[in-house]
């Protein structure tokens, strides 16, 4: 009724124009279908990260002549890395296929432990492999020393039995947010130092550092200070390990593919079996 009275009050000849203007205004103010926005990125649940999770997304897999790793040389020993995604692993098959060493994810941050850790860690040992444990770092959730302590309390320790490798710090792209976990390059280096220093103070061993050159360059500024103490495990899905982070003249291990047989993640130790045993013995 209010609308009709308003129209009737306009002088003759202007009512149609007024009605049109009012209707146009009403149409402009009526909300239309919601604008389509880009879907929010899917963030995996905490604890679900695994070694090399960010390699394909950020570094990709090489193509063409650079895609297929050359056959392992006599002084390169095949290995695997596993996490909860693999569940109960058929270690006998892997051993028969040439894998002689293995790393199992033990922990992440200060709240996650791998529910398959015991079967994986002990199963590798039972078939004769030299085995070790790794920790997936989340520098945005707790300090480096605190995460080293958590790792050591949940399977990341070391013993001089000739079959146990030093623990690994898996430091790579953040699967839950920004690549560098919200840290500056200086802060990231300090976090890593806190982890490896605490690990060594409690075990006597220098932790292995697993990373990719592109992440290391972006998030540490290609810091060179760990190359003289901590063995390098490089991630690159290509025919060669490629350019290494600053400070490391060579790599100790190389994760070269995520699509291997039986277990996807396959690795090579850059040395003969006696050198792998030497690393285990410290």
Automatic annotation (TrEMBL):
Q: Name one GO cellular component term.
A: extracellular region
**Single GO MF annotation:** lysozyme activity
Gene3D superfamilies the record matches: Glycosidases
E.C. number(s) listed in UniProt: 3.2.1.17
Gene Ontology biological process terms from the UniProt entry: carbohydrate catabolic process; cell wall macromolecule catabolic process; defense response to bacterium; killing of cells of another organism; peptidoglycan catabolic process
PROSITE patterns, per the entry: GLYCOSYL_HYDROL_F25_2 (PS51904)
Q: Function, please?
A: This enzyme has both lysozyme (acetylmuramidase) and diacetylmuramidase activities.
Record-stated family:
Belongs to the glycosyl hydrolase 25 family.
| UniProt name for this protein | lysozyme
């Amino acid at each position: 009724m209010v609308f009709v009275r308003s129209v009737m009050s306009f002088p003759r000849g202007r009512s149609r124009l007024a009605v049109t203007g009012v209707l146009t205004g009403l149409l402009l103010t009526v909300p239309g279908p919601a604008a389509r926005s880009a879907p929010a990125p899917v963030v995996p649940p905490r604890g679900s990260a695994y070694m090399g999770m960010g390699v394909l997304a950020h570094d990709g897999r090489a193509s063409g002549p650079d895609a297929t790793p050359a056959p392992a040389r006599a002084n390169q020993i095949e290995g695997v890395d596993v996490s909860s995604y693999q569940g109960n692993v058929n270690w006998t098959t892997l051993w028969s296929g040439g894998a002689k060493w293995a790393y199992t994810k033990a922990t992440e941050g200060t709240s996650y432990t791998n529910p398959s850790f015991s079967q994986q860690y002990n199963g590798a040992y039972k078939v004769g492999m030299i085995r070790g444990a790794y920790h997936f770092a989340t520098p945005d959730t707790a300090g480096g020393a605190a995460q080293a302590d958590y790792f050591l309390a949940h399977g990341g320790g070391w013993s001089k039995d000739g079959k146990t490798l030093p623990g690994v710090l898996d430091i790579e792209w953040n699967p839950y947010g920004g690549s560098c976990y919200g840290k500056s390059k200086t802060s990231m280096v300090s976090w890593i130092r806190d982890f490896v220093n605490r690990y060594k103070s409690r075990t006597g061993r220098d932790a292995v550092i697993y990373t990719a050159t592109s992440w290391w360059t972006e998030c540490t500024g290609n810091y060179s200070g760990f190359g003289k103490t901590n063995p390098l495990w490089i991630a690159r899905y290509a025919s060669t390990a490629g350019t290494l982070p600053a400070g490391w003249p060579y790599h100790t291990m190389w994760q070269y593919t995520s699509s291997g047989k039986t277990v996807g993640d396959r690795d090579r130790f850059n040395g003969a079996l006696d050198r792998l045993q030497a690393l285990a013995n410290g």
